[in-house]
Design goal:
Blueprint (H helix, E strand, L loop, with lengths): L25 H5 L19 H5 L3 E10 L2 E11 L4 E5 L6 H8 L7 E6 L2 E2 L5 H7 L1 E3 L12 H9 L6 H7 L2 H20 L16 H13 L5 E5 L7 H18 L2 E5 L3 H7 L2 E6 L2 E6 L1 H6 L1 H9 L3
Parallel strand pairs: 3-8, 3-9, 6-7, 7-8
Antiparallel strand pairs: 1-2, 1-4, 4-5, 9-10
Helix pairs in contact: 5-7, 5-8, 7-8
This protein binds adenosine-5'-diphosphate (ADP) and magnesium ion.
The site of adenosine-5'-diphosphate has 16 residues, from strand 2 and helix 3.
Length: about 300
């Protein structure tokens, strides 16, 4: 139901959650290591699965999450390959957002492992995972309503600023130049996701719902990710907005070489853009494959329709 993580100190990041203020921690730099170059990388995932993990950007192996007596995610294996568009679908309460929260470090798995860019991130902090190149948007829009669109994007770029504390206080020329460059970059990102320039300096709260979702995507792009996670990006959009969103997601993959993982209920979006669809039901992965095959799978039809009858 809720995508408000109640564990892990997400509150520190305010509305922006794990993407808010990634610190340039020492371990953040190791995330840039090429795949397979690390010592504790893909081979640590487990015997017999190294083949899958080797060319994976992201690999979850036997991941489970328990909340008290509730098994929210049960033994899920899941892979995202570089430059792929992958979708997770499933009824409400299936565990989709919980799974995202584990991938991004907001929740720790009860068991199992998660590997990103060849490194085990099962117990890594959200800011470390973000600095390694995984970015997300949230099921419920989390923008700062009283900040402009540009300022909201700057929040996502925070990790890339290098002026330092002293420079920030005295606003040295270097810092001012960096701020200017940051704002210019934020405008470029807003334009890239399709926000008209006349909205860039408006408060986020005054933008249309569809544009607010786009600002969130721009903010997620500001940290220059290699994997973008979108939790129900088309929710609340009208058909023309969701068509435009589909085109944007495909463009981000094609032009930026991004891998994209989305949770989505809008089947038109899912069928149009996904290379691979995974279906969750009651915390279990019940089907996976190409979109048309998955849609025709009797277990999937049952998960969606069986409960009504
Ligand atoms: N922080 C939490 N504490 C307890 N239960 C939770 C928490 N987060 C999610 N859940 C429960 O886990 C199940 C899966 O929820 P969720 O991952 O939000 O599903 P989905 O995103 O597929 O709709 C639900 O029963 C939900 O109530
Ligand atoms: Mg959800």
């Amino acid at each position: 139901m809720s995508d408000q993580p109640s564990e892990n100190t997400e509150a520190a990041g305010g509305m922006t959650g794990g993407e808010g203020a990634p610190r340039p921690a020492a371990d953040a730099t190791t995330g840039a290591a090429p795949q397979g170059a690390g010592t504790g990388g893909a081979t640590a995932v487990g015997a017999g699965t190294t083949e899958v993990a080797d060319d994976a950007l992201l690999a979850a192996l036997g991941v489970s999450k328990r909340f008290g007596g509730l098994q929210a995610i049960a033994e899920v294996d899941f892979v995202v390959r570089p430059n792929a568009i992958a979708a997770i679908i499933g009824p409400n309460g299936a565990g989709k957002t919980t799974f995202f929260n584990m991938l991004t470090g907001l929740y720790k798995p009860s068991s199992g492992s998660i590997t990103f860019r060849g490194q085990d991130v099962s117990r890594a902090r959200p800011d470390v995972i973000s600095a390694m190149g995984m970015s997300r948007t949230f099921q419920n829009i989390r923008l700062f309503g009283t900040m402009t669109a540009v300022e909201n994007v700057l929040v996502g770029a925070h990790a890339r600023m290098k002026g330092g504390v002293v420079g920030s206080i005295f606003r040295t020329p270097k810092v001012r130049a960096e701020e200017k460059a940051g704002r210019d970059r934020a405008r470029e990102l807003l334009t890239e996701v399709g926000i008209d320039t006349r909205w860039h300096d408006h408060l986020a709260i005054n933008l249309s719902y569809g544009d607010q979702r786009r600002v969130e995507i721009a903010r997620a792009l500001a940290s220059d990710p290699s994997l973008l996670l979108l939790d129900e990006p088309a929710a609340g959009m009208n058909p023309s907005e969701s068509d435009a969103l589909s085109a944007l997601i495909r463009r981000l993959r094609d032009d930026r070489g991004l891998a994209i993982l989305l949770i989505e209920h809008d089947m038109k979006v899912v069928m149009n853009i996904s290379d691979r669809v995974t279906v969750f039901d009651h915390g279990e992965k019940i089907a996976e494959g190409e979109p048309l095959a998955v849609r025709a799978d009797p277990r999937v039809v049952e998960a969606y329709l069986g409960k009504q009858g």
